[in-house]
């Protein structure tokens, strides 16, 4: 009888440990931020992908949206992601603050539903340089080689990948303003060195 009790107790403890381990795995899968400050950028250029404008249902091709810009931020997020929701107000303020510098923002919602996106974004006034799209085919994350959200990628006017921001960022920090010209001017430097990944 006593052995049976301890066997049951051990099984319960094992089940609890497995449940905790799985929950931790799922959390890190979507929200985890690894210390990648020493990594080089592996994505070399803007992937050519198609999404759908949430506002009007029109198709949006990545390179078409890049045309005529000085740079493009591609922000991968979802309404189901709590850190993404928390980051969005600051990110939109940042987008508005750099609107006059020829920079556009493509907010790509992944694994999401259009009604949820519209409801969430209705609380904001979108700057003119921001477009919210949905990845209906769920291919964008694969094309960027990422498994976690939020992640933000910066490309120059030619589509060259300049910087990567893993996890939610504090976009109102002065450094994001002062370094933008440096990031976008990096392709003109004589001794150009690939940018490191930005993490928080």
Structural notes for this entry:
- The chain is an alpha/beta fold.
- The chain folds into two domains: 1-31; 50-199, Glutaredoxin (3-Layer(aba) Sandwich), CATH 3.40.30.
- It is 38% helix and 20% strand.
- It contains seven helices and eight strands; from the N terminus they run αββαβαβαβαββααβ.
- Strands 2-1-5-4-3-6-7-8 form an eight-stranded mixed sheet.
- It starts with a helix and ends with a strand.
- Residues 23-39 and 187-195 have low confidence and may be disordered.
Number of helices: 7
Largest sheet: 8 strands, mixed
The counted number of beta strands is 8
Q: Which radius of gyration do the C-alpha atoms yield? A: 20 Å
The general outline is elongated
N/C terminus separation:
53 Å
Into which percentage range does the β-strand content fall? 15-25%
The CATH class name of the largest domain reads: Alpha Beta
Share of residues in helices:
25-40%
Q: Kindly name the structural category.
A: alpha/beta
Q: Note the run of SSEs as H and E.
A: HEEHEHEHEHEEHHE
Tally of individual domains = 2
For the record, the CATH architecture of the largest domain stands as 3-Layer(aba) Sandwich
Under CATH, the homologous superfamily of the largest domain reads: Glutaredoxin
CATH topology (fold) name of the largest domain: Glutaredoxin
Instruction: Give the strand line-up of the largest sheet.
Output: 2-1-5-4-3-6-7-8
Instruction: Show unreliable segments.
Output: 23-39, 187-195
What's the pLDDT, averaged over the residues? 83
